[in-house]
Amino acid sequence: MSYLKHFDDAENREKINTALKATLNWGFGLNHSLCHGDGGNLELFLQAREILKDREWDVKLHRGQ
With DSSP H G I counted as helix, E B as strand and the rest as coil, what are the percentages for the chain, rounded to 5? Predict the structure, then answer.
């Protein structure tokens, strides 16, 4: 996501949103580790909140949507 400061356009944001949706839907509950599990996936959403400035993902993550 950090590449958005150089290549911020609708196509790249859509790719990021697709990845976030997939992670939210299928990326939790199998492994609690920081590297390849829930901990790492939570870090992805923390980065998304900081870089994208979009609170939508906070709400969806909190609700488990």
Answer: 70, 0, 30
